[in-house]
Protein 1
Amino acid sequence: MSLPELPAIDLTEIVASLQDGILLITLRNSRKTNSFTEKMSHDLIRVFQWGDADDRVRVILLTADPKERAFCAGADMEEVIKGSVLLGRKEDSEDEHRDPGGQVALSIYNNRKVTIVAVNGHAWGSGFTSLQLPFDFRFIWAGAEITLPFLRLGILPESTSTYLLSRLVGQSRATSILLSNAKMRPDSPNLSSLYQDILPNKEDVLPAALSFAKTIAATSAPVSITYTKGLLHHPGMTIEENHLLDSRAIKRRGASKDGEEGLKAFMQRRSPNFPDTVSGETSWYPWWKSRDVNQPKTKL
Amino acid sequence: MSLPELPAIDLTEIVASLQDGILLITLRNSRKTNSFTEKMSHDLIRVFQWGDADDRVRVILLTADPKERAFCAGADMEEVIKGSVLLGRKEDSEDEHRDPGGQVALSIYNNRKVTIVAVNGHAWGSGFTSLQLPFDFRFIWAGAEITLPFLRLGILPESTSTYLLSRLVGQSRATSILLSNAKMRPDSPNLSSLYQDILPNKEDVLPAALSFAKTIAATSAPVSITYTKGLLHHPGMTIEENHLLDSRAIKRRGASKDGEEGLKAFMQRRSPNFPDTVSGETSWYPWWKSRDVNQPKTKL
Amino acid sequence: MSLPELPAIDLTEIVASLQDGILLITLRNSRKTNSFTEKMSHDLIRVFQWGDADDRVRVILLTADPKERAFCAGADMEEVIKGSVLLGRKEDSEDEHRDPGGQVALSIYNNRKVTIVAVNGHAWGSGFTSLQLPFDFRFIWAGAEITLPFLRLGILPESTSTYLLSRLVGQSRATSILLSNAKMRPDSPNLSSLYQDILPNKEDVLPAALSFAKTIAATSAPVSITYTKGLLHHPGMTIEENHLLDSRAIKRRGASKDGEEGLKAFMQRRSPNFPDTVSGETSWYPWWKSRDVNQPKTKL
C-alpha cells in the first residue's frame, strides 16, 4: 500500500495512504509509544479534513502498528510537563484554550465520510477519548487495556468524551467508565457495546476493519452516508421535526442520480456505481448551524 | 377472533379485530410478500388512530401471518418504480413530501395506548424502520433476517429511524445498524436490546406477545400508561423540569378515581377495575406542543 | 463504624457515619420493611445535602441491613392511605405538590460527590426509582426482586424515573421496565446494564461497594469528580459546545494545585494527595442554571 495519490503534506507522527476509496492512517511516533503529541493532533486534523474534502475517499480508517506496545499511550507526558498546549499554555486564558484532543475529535466526528478505528494495542487516556469515541465504527484487540488516568491526575476526561460517551452507550455506562479509575478490557460489560468487533489477536484487527471498510466503500452511496450521519448526529428535536427532515432528505435522494442508479442496479442485480459526490452536495447540507470553535472570540 | 366491534372501514392490506381490549392488526398483502405500499400506510394510520381514540382499546398489537415468507418485505418496488408517494411524487416539492413510513411511525409512536409488534418473519427496510422501531414492545422470531438496503439504493434510512434508534439503543448501536449494509439477526449484539423477547419458532411470536398484551390490558390503568408514555417521550429538558412534571402527574393521578380504585384493589388483594378513560383526560394531556406535520405549510 | 464526626441531626429512619471519606447511610425503619416514609425522605435529603457540603466526604454510600427482608419496600402504604405528602396532600394544588421521591432523587443526582447504592434486599417502587436510579454506581444482590406497582395502583412511575431511566439505559429498556408490570431480577437484560456489579449473596453487596468506594476516595481528585459529573449531567447541547466547556475545564484543572500534585505523584509513582476542595470551587461551577423547584411559585 503506497501513498501516490495523497498530496504531499508534512506528516511526521502519522502515515497516510489512499487505496480503493479507503484513506488509511497509521500512528507512528514509536519513540514515544504512540503518545498523543501536539504535532500528532495537527497531523490528524489535517488528514481527516483532507479526507472529508476529497471525493475519492469513501472511508477513513485509523490504526497503529500492531508491533507497538500501545495503540496510543495518551497525552505525551514530556509535553504536558513542559507546559504544551495539551493541558493549555500558560499564556492562554481559560476562554481561549482549545483542547487538542477535542479538536481531533471534532475533525473525526464531523467528518462526512465513514470513519473506522482499528485499535490493535493498549489505549490510555486520549487514546480512548479522542481516538476511539468520535468514530462511526470501532474494532479492537481483545487484550487491549483501556485506562483513563484523568481523575488520578487531578484533571478530567476531555476530547468531548462526556458528550460522546453518554450518547453512544447511555449515561449509566458512561458514568461508570469515566468516574471509575479501573483498568478495563474491551469485553467489560460497560465497554463492549462500543465495539463492532473484538478480535483475539492484535494482527487480526486491521484486516477485519479493512474488509468491513471495503464493503461499505463498494456498496454505499457516499452522499447517503453523509445524510445518514447528519441525521444521526443532528436529529430533529422531536419526532415530528425528524420526520420533516428525513422526508425532505428521502425526496431529495430518491430523485437524485444516485437514487436512479441504486434502483437500476437493484433491479439488474448488479453492484451500483454512484455518480453523486459529497463535495457536490452543497445546497441543503449541513441543515444545522455549528459554532465555529476555532474563532478565538467564540466564548461560552 | 372476529371483527364485530370494529367500525367498517375499507381495509385491504391489513385485517383488524378487537378482543379483550386488544386491537390485533395483521398485515395481509401476501401477493406482495407483505411489502409496504401506499395503501398499507393509509390502512395502518387509520386503524392506529382509531385505536388511539376508542377507550375499549388498551393495547394495539401488529403482526403478520407466520406462513408468509416475510413479516414485511419493505417498500413495494413496483410502486417505487412507478413513482408513487413512497419516495416522493414528481409533482411534490422537497418541502411538501411526507414520507409514508414516517407517517405510520408517528401514528404508532404518538399513540396513547400500549403498542406491541410481533415480528414473525423476515423484515426488510421499512419492515424494520417503520414497523418495529416506533412500538413500545417488540417480539421477534430468532430466525428473522433484518436487512436495511437504503444506502445501497442511494437513499437513506427513513421513517424517523435516525431519531428513534439513537434514543432506543444509543448512538453507537444506531450508527452501526444504519450505516452498515449487513444482514442482521435479532440476537446480534447491536439489535438484541431492542427486543422484549426473541422466540425460536415463527409460530410462537404472536402467542407470546398476546399473553404479554393481556397482562397489561388486565392490570394497568390506561390513563397511567398514557401519562408514562408521555413522560418517556417528552421528559423534562432537565431533571428539575421532569420533577415538576411528574409531581403534577402523580398528584393528579393519586387523587383520581383510578388512584382510589388502585389503592382499594391493592388492599383487598384483588384485580383493579379502573374507571378513568384516556379520551376523558383532556385538561392537561398533552403538556407539550407538537408541530402539525400534515399541514402543507409546515416547513423546516 | 461510629458517628463521631457527623453533626447531631435528628435522624430516625436512617443511620449515618463517616469514615475514610465515605459517608455511609443505612436505612433502618425495620418496623415497616424499610418502606419509604415522609420522614425518611427528609432524613435522606438532609444527610445528602450535608455530604454535598462537607469537604471531608468523598463518597456517599447508601445501603440497608441485609437481614431485612427488603432493601426498601416502596412508599409506606399506611401513610399513602392517610393522605400524606407521598401522593400529595389534599390541600396542595397540582402545581404545588413536590413528589418526595423526586426530592430525594434530586438531592442524590445533583450531589457533587460520588454516590453509590448497595442494594442488599428486594426493591419495590421508590426503592428502585428514588433509591437506585439517581446514583452514580449501583451494586445489587442477584436475588433482589424489583417490582414496580405504579400502573397497577392507577398512578405512574415517579421520582424523575422517566427522565433518568431513558438517559441511563436508553428508551427501549426504559419503556420496557416502566410500562410492564413484571417482577424483574437484576440479571434481566433490561436491567443488567444499570448495575456495576451483581453479587450472589446479600452480605457481599456492601463490602463490594465499600471496597470500590475506598479506591475512588483514595485516588480521585474531588473537584475533578465534581466537574466530570457536571459534564455528564449537563453536557453541551452540541459537540462544539461541549468542546468549549471541557476545554475550559481542562485548562482550569490543569493549572490548579490538584493538577500540579497529580502530575508530581504520577512522575514519582506515589498516591496523590489533592489539596483543592469542592466547597472552594465557586467561581465557575455550576456553569448551568437550574430552576429552584422548592419555590412554591416555580410552576410548569
Note: Chain A touches chain C through 54 residues (CB under 8 Å).
Protein 2
Amino acid sequence: MPVPAMKESDVDVLVIGAGPAGLMCAQGLARAGVNVRIVDKRPGKVAAGQADGIQPRTIEVLQVGICSYGLAERLLKEGNQMHMAAFYDPSPEGGIHRTGRTPDINAPTARFPFEVTLHQGAIESIFLDCLRSMGHEVERPVVPESLEISDNRDALKDPQARAVKVVLKHVDAPEGKDTEVVHAKYVVGADGAHSWVRKQLGFAMEGEQTGTAPASLSDGPADYVWGVVDMIPDTDFPDIRNRCAIHSNNGSCMVIPREGDVVRLYIQLTDEDVRDVTTGRVDTQKCSAEKLLEVAKKSFHPYRIKAKGDILWWTIYIIGQRVASKFSAHERVFIAGDACHTHSPKAGQGMNASMNDTHNLIWKLTHVLRGWADISLLKTYELERRKYAQDLIAFDKEFASLFSKKPKSEENPDGVTQEEFVEAFRTFGGFTSGIGIHYAPSTIVDAAHQASASKLIIGQRVLPQTVIRAADARPYELQDLLPADTRFKLLVFTGDIGAPEQKRKVDELAKHLERKESFLGRFGEQKNDVFDVFAVCLSRKEDVVYTDVPEVFRPHWSKVLLDDVDTTGKVGAGVYEKFGIGSEGAIVVVRPDGYVGIVAPLDDVSVLESYFAGFFAKS
Amino acid sequence: MPVPAMKESDVDVLVIGAGPAGLMCAQGLARAGVNVRIVDKRPGKVAAGQADGIQPRTIEVLQVGICSYGLAERLLKEGNQMHMAAFYDPSPEGGIHRTGRTPDINAPTARFPFEVTLHQGAIESIFLDCLRSMGHEVERPVVPESLEISDNRDALKDPQARAVKVVLKHVDAPEGKDTEVVHAKYVVGADGAHSWVRKQLGFAMEGEQTGTAPASLSDGPADYVWGVVDMIPDTDFPDIRNRCAIHSNNGSCMVIPREGDVVRLYIQLTDEDVRDVTTGRVDTQKCSAEKLLEVAKKSFHPYRIKAKGDILWWTIYIIGQRVASKFSAHERVFIAGDACHTHSPKAGQGMNASMNDTHNLIWKLTHVLRGWADISLLKTYELERRKYAQDLIAFDKEFASLFSKKPKSEENPDGVTQEEFVEAFRTFGGFTSGIGIHYAPSTIVDAAHQASASKLIIGQRVLPQTVIRAADARPYELQDLLPADTRFKLLVFTGDIGAPEQKRKVDELAKHLERKESFLGRFGEQKNDVFDVFAVCLSRKEDVVYTDVPEVFRPHWSKVLLDDVDTTGKVGAGVYEKFGIGSEGAIVVVRPDGYVGIVAPLDDVSVLESYFAGFFAKS
C-alpha cells in the first residue's frame, strides 16, 4: 500500500495548550483577525478545582478585552468577590478567635477593589464561548510530536516566514490520517508546568522544587505540604465568606470563599498526615478528602465545619517556586503561563500571571504580523514578563513561608505574630492585586519625560479615572475607552484651547500629525487602525464646543473628552491632577495592553517620533 | 363534509398585543411561572422609528427585571444616553444661538441620571429574546375576533375560573384550522392606541383628539402638527449629541440623539407645510421626509444639517392627550399602554408609561393566580395606573404647549421666554424621569406609620442606596437585592443588636414571625417564595457577627446587610439616615414592583398583620 501523504498546513500563530494563558492568547489574536489555531492534549476543559483567583488588575484587563460580551462582565456575574480578609489566632481559652479584619485588597488605585474567585473551568468557558462567537474552536485532543525552528538566518529575520515546523497528532483521527505538519510563523507554548514546548526548547526551570501534585510529591520539608478542598460548608464560622488566615496550634488553614456557596480550604499538613515513616517520602495514599477535613476541623475549633453533600474537588501539593531560564527562542517560539513559572497557589497568582503573559504578547505578535512593527519588538516579551515572574517568585517565597510558620508562642519563639502577618499582608498589596506591575525601560517604555505627567507612571498600567465626553456629557471610565484592540492610544491633553497660546500649540501639533511623514500620517488610510486618538480638554461641559478641537484629534464626535464632573456633580473631574499633568498639557501614549509607553510635552513631538521609530518597521 | 371542531384551549393569562406593554407583561408572567400566551396581529416586530425614550425610573425597573441577562444591562449596552439638554434661541445676528445647557434629568434620587434612547424594535428584541430563553414566542399574525366575559357571578368571584372567552384567528393557518377558542382566566389588552380590546369593552377615550399619525390626522390647530425624522446627520451643530430645544423664528425643533450616530428630529410644522388650503384639513400627501428636513434646516441656521445616507424613518403627528374611562372590566380583562392613554411623543413618556402599567399588573395577577392574594387585589391596578395616566396627560399638555409656542419677542408678546422654558423643563424633572410616581393609599399602600421611616415615602419606589453585605463586606445597590421576582421584600432594620434592649425587640419580632399564625409563618415551607427577608443592621463590617441575627431573618448567609462603607471607604453607609430610620429600627415592606407598601415600628408587628390581612386570601 502506498503511504498516504502527510497533511501539511500553514498558520500564522499556533497556540499549544488551552488553559487560561493559551485561551487568552487565542481569543486576543482571533479578535485581532490574526490567522491562529489552538490545540490541547486534554479531551475537554477543566471540570472542577485548579486555580480560582482573579486579581484586580486581571479584572481590569478582562474588562477591556473585547468580545461580543465583556469578558469581565461575565466573570463578575458568575464569580464571588472577596472584599475582606479575616485573621484568626490561638485563643487563650483554646481553639481560635478572630484578631482582626482588613480589606482583602490594599491597592488604592485599583478600579475593582476585590478579588474574584471562580473555578478555572468557568473561566475557561468565558474564553471558549468568546472564541466560538468568532468561529474558533480548540482542537482536541491534539498532541504535539515534534517542533523545529528553521536555522535559515534569512528566514528568521523575515517576520512573515513560516520558520517553525510542528508535527501534531490528532488523537481521535483515524490512523494514517492523524498526523499533520503545521508550518507556523510563530508558536506559543502555553502547555502547563510540565510544558512539552519548554522541553523541546531545552529551557531549564530555575529555582526550588516545584509542587504540581500529586505526581511530583516526594520529599521536602513537611511544613510546606498543603491540602486543598473545595466544598459547600455546613458551619457556624462567621467568616466563612471572607478570605481567612487561620493560625491555630493545630496547623494553619486558609479560607477562600467561591462562587455560589462553595468554599475552598487550604490546609497545612504534618509529617504524620502525609509522610511514610519507613521511607520518609510523602505518600499520597495516606491522604483523602475526609482526612484533609479532619485536619481542618481541628484548626477551626471551637467552630464546627463539615461538608454539605460531597467534596467537590481536592488535591495536595508541595510549595515550590521556579522560573524558566528563557521565555523565547529566536522570537519564534514563546512559552507562557505555568510553562515558564510555577509558584504556590495560595497567593492566587498563577492564573493571573498566565493570562497577563499572553496579554503582553498578543498585540506585539499582531503588530509584527501586520508588518507595522519590526520583529525585534517581540524581544520585549521575555524582557517584561520574565522580570515579572522573578519578582513574583521572590514575593511568593516570602508569603508562603510566612503562611506556613506556626504562631509565635513560648514554645515557638521563632513563630510569626499576628501583627507581622497582617503587616506583610498589607505590604504585599501591590503584588497580590497585580496593580503594581511596572515594566522596565525598553524600546516600548520610555520614561525620559515622566515630568510631563508626573503621576502617571510610565511602564505601569494607565490609571482608572472618570472623564466626561464633550459631545454629550456622558461620563466614561477612561480605561473602558482604551480597549485591548491592538491599537496604540494617543491621548492629547490639550489644556484649555480657549487660551490662544494653548490653541496655537495644539494646532501646530495637529499640523505635524497631518503630515504624511509623521508617525501617524505615514499609515495613511490605516492610521485609525493603528492609533486611537483622543483629545482631553480642560473645559467645562456647559460651554465646550467640541467642534473647536482640530479634526485630526476627533475622527469621530465621541473622541473629545473633558476633565469635568458629570451632570450630577458626583463623578469625574481631576484627570489632569491625577495624572500630574499641568495646564500646559501633554501627550500620553498608552500601549495596546493598557500600559503607559511614553509621555511627551505637548510641544515636543520629536520625542514621539523617536519612540515609534524605535520599533515601527521602516517604511 | 363535516365541519371540523373548532380548536379550544385553556390559558391562565392571554396577552393581546406584543408592543412594549404586552411584552413586558408576558415576560414577567412567564418568569413567574404563570401559564401565559401572547399574540399579535403584526407579522413581525417594529423595524424602525416609533417610540425611543427610556426614563430613569424605567431603567431601574428593567434593572431588577430578572432574566438570564439583565434587561437594563442590554438596554444600557445598546442604547444612547442623554445626560445634557441644550437650549437655542433666536440670535440677534439672525439664526439661532445657544443660551444654555442644563442636565437632561432633574431627579436627585435617580439611580441612572440620564435617559436612554434606542429605537422601539431594539427594545422589543430585548424582551423577545428574554421570552425565547424561557421557551416562549409571540404568536403572530393572530387577530382576535371576539371577546366575552362570563356573566356568571360565581365564576367572576372565583379567581381560578376561566371566565373570559376569546376567539383568535391565526392568519397564516390553513382555512378551517385558523380559528381557536381560548378560555382564559385573565386577558390583558395591550393592543395600542386603536385597541380592539378597549372597543370590545366599550371604554371611551376621554380628552382631546389623539394623534396617531398619519391615519387620524385631520384638523386641529396647525401649531400642534409635528414631523419626526430619524437619520444619521452630517452637521456642524455642536449640540447634536445632546437633547436640544430649539426655538427659532422659523419654528421649533427638538433634537434627540440616539444609538450609534442616529439622531431624531422633532420638527414643528406650519399650515403652509401640511394643510390643504381648500379643505382646511391636514394633508399627509403634502409632506415628505425631504420636506421635513427642509423645514428643519431653516430652524438650524446658521448651522448646517443634512442626512448622511438615507432617512431611516419619518412620520407626522398631531399632539393630543386622552385617557380611557376604565382600565379594567370585572378585574378579568385589563387594558394597558397606548390602549388606555395617548399623549405627545416629545416628552418621551409613552413607552415608559406602557411598560410600567404591566409592571404594576404582573405581580398582582401572579399572587391571585397562586391563590395567595384575594382577587380584589386586582382593583388596585386601575386605581394606581389610571391616576398616573391622568397626571401624565396634565403634564404633557403643559409641556407640549410650551414647546409649540413661538419665542417671545416684540411681534410675539405671548410667546415663551427661554427662562420660562428652562424653568419648566427643570420643574417637570420628577415627571419626565418617572421617579416621582406616587401611588395613593389603598389596601396595598398604607402610610399610617410614615414616621418610622420618615424619608422613605410610602407609595413611591424604594430609594437607591448602597449597603454592605455582612458576611463578606461586598457592597450592593439595595435595589438590586430587591428584584421583580413577585416576592414581597421584608426589610427588618434591626438597629444595633449589640444593644440588649434592641436585641430583645428583634428577638421578639423573630419569635412572632416564626409562629404559624403570622403573615409569614402561615405560608409554611412556601414562605420564602412569598417573602424575601433581609436584616439591615447598624453594625461595622469589621466586627459584625452575622450569625448573631435571628435565623428567621437570614434564610441564607447573604441576607444580612449593614449600614456601613465598603472596604475602600468610598461607597455605602447612610441607609438609616437616607430612609429617615432612627436607631430604634423599623420594618419596611417593599412591594414586588419596588414600591414601598408600608412601614411599621419594629415593635408593632400588628400593623403588618392588618396590612397583609387586607389583601391576602383567607387561609
Note: Residues 209-222 of chain A have pLDDT under 50 and may be disordered.
